[in-house]
């Protein structure tokens, strides 16, 4: 059954028993529709249930995924892709297929090797693998967007950013490990709905974190729980592991989109004053926060085919939330009404007000490197394509008696939870 383990520092680690996570699609089941109608029941159905990993580890049961993750037929192709893991055109969807749905575990094992972290921190490879399997399994595959493939995509982007000369020349092994771990776990156990939804349904996590960075706090605490259960860092001095846990929290909490202006203003000030001292641990940590924020919302900066897939996936997740809200007679959240909020209008607004300001500042920090210029070029081209699609929708709407026409104001609506 459900178990909650509270560490000495008040860390909440929630685990589930043998019950599967309740798929939101169950709410559409006709046998349930007549029985479920109250906010209280929504809250119960949305409770986060997860496998009790610790009990499996204590019993010595090896996770389902073998250490040898790849089928022989795909091994060569996956290895070839990993040899180009630092390229911006890396196709995470293809890599996930080649690794049989184990993109996050396979990618992290490879990157820990590439960056020399296993040797530097004397990590046990089997323990590392078990921890990464725990993280990967704690993502919900039924989420169209916030799943383990998104985590792998963010991790690959983070790897690219960590190699930017302006940053790479100053990074310590601790910085690199923190950056990769935070990227991999930044959305762990995401329920597929945003913070306002949890607040208005009075979810227990909203109460626990007092309606502040609810999901981000949960991602962080869950990560710490898995780190402790796996004992991945148990051989390190206690003060070192405590510092790692706190810095992981600082990084993951920075991905809260509600804090976007706070970080942009601070970054602009540093760049304008030219007072960033990356020899300073505090300044390096701040730029790791910025790098993770960039990695988390870099989808519009990818090749069109990849970017378009991510856009469709996140909007599908929004629309599912809107359907839930409509079903239970709640106010439909911004961007979640499939009848009014179109994918092009959502993406144009997101690119204009969230992505462009951040990536223009990132390019200013890196010094207009080939990667930064490449990302900005993709961003501009992708935005132009969405504008073209929006224009076509408008034309189609006008020819159909203006039914379902998108208003310009919808472009300015910003989501309150991490949006690609």
Automatic annotation (TrEMBL):
InterPro entries: HD/PDEase_dom, PDEase, PDEase_catalytic_dom, PDEase_catalytic_dom_sf, PDEase_CS. Binds 2 divalent metal cations per subunit. Site 1 may preferentially bind zinc ions, while site 2 has a preference for magnesium and/or manganese ions. Pathway: Purine metabolism; 3',5'-cyclic AMP degradation; AMP from 3',5'-cyclic AMP: step 1/1. Pfam families: PDEase_I. Keywords: cAMP, Hydrolase, Metal-binding. The keyword Hydrolase applies. GO terms for molecular function: 3',5'-cyclic-AMP phosphodiesterase activity; metal ion binding. Zn(2+) 2 binds at residue 187. Residues 396-413 have a biased composition (Polar residues). The keyword 4Fe-4S does not apply. Gene3D superfamilies: 3'5'-cyclic nucleotide phosphodiesterase, catalytic domain. Its cofactor is a divalent metal cation. Residues 70-393 form the PDEase domain. AMP binds at residues 146-150, 187, 296, 347. The active site is at 146 (proton donor). Its EC number is 3.1.4.-. It catalyses: 3',5'-cyclic AMP + H2O = AMP + H(+). Residues 391-420 are annotated as: Disordered. Zn(2+) 1 binds at residues 150, 186-187, 296. CDD domains: HDc. Belongs to the cyclic nucleotide phosphodiesterase family. PDE7 subfamily. This is Phosphodiesterase. It comes from Oceanodroma tethys. The gene is Pde7b.
């Amino acid at each position: 059954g459900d178990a909650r383990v509270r560490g000495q520092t008040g860390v909440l680690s929630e685990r589930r028993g043998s019950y599967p996570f309740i798929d939101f699609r169950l709410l559409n089941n006709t046998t349930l529709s007549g029985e479920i109608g109250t906010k209280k029941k929504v809250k119960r159905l949305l409770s986060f249930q997860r496998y009790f990993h610790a009990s499996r580890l204590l019993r010595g049961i090896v996770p389902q995924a073998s250490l040898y993750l790849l089928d022989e037929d795909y091994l060569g192709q996956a290895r070839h892709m990993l040899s180009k893991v630092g390229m911006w055109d890396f196709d995470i969807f293809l890599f996930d297929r080649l690794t049989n749905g184990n993109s996050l575990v396979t990618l992290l094992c490879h990157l820990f090797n590439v960056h020399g972290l296993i040797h530097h921190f004397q990590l046990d490879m089997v323990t590392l693998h078990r921890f990464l399997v725990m993280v990967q399994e704690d993502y919900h595959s039924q989420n169209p967007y916030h799943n383990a493939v998104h985590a792998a995509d963010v991790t690959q982007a983070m790897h690219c950013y960590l190699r930017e000369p302006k940053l790479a020349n100053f990074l310590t092994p601790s910085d690199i490990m923190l950056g990769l771990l935070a990227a991999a776990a930044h959305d762990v156990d995401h329920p597929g709905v945003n913070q306002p939804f949890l607040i208005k349904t009075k979810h227990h996590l909203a109460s626990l974190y007092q309606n502040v960075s609810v999901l981000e706090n949960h991602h962080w605490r869950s990560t710490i729980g898995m780190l402790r259960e796996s004992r991945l860092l148990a051989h390190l001095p206690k003060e070192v592991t405590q510092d790692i846990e706190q810095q992981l929290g600082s990084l993951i909490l920075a991905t809260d989109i509600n804090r976007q202006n706070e970080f942009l203003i601070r970054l602009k000030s540093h760049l304008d004053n030219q007072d960033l001292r990356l020899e300073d641990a505090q300044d390096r940590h701040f730029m790791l926060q910025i790098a993770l924020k960039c990695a988390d919302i870099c989808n519009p900066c990818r090749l069109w085919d990849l970017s378009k897939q991510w856009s469709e996936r996140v909007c599908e997740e929004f629309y599912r939330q809107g359907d839930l809200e409509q079903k239970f007679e709640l106010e439909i959240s911004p961007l979640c009404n499939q009848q009014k909020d179109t994918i092009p209008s959502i993406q144009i607004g997101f690119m204009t007000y969230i992505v462009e300001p951040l990536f223009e500042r990132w390019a200013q920090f890196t010094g207009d490197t080939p990667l930064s210029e490449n990302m900005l070029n993709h961003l501009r081209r992708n935005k132009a394509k969405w504008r073209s699609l929006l224009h076509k929708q408008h034309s189609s709407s006008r020819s159909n008696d203006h039914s379902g026409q998108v208003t310009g104001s919808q472009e300015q609506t910003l989501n309150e939870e991490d949006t690609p």
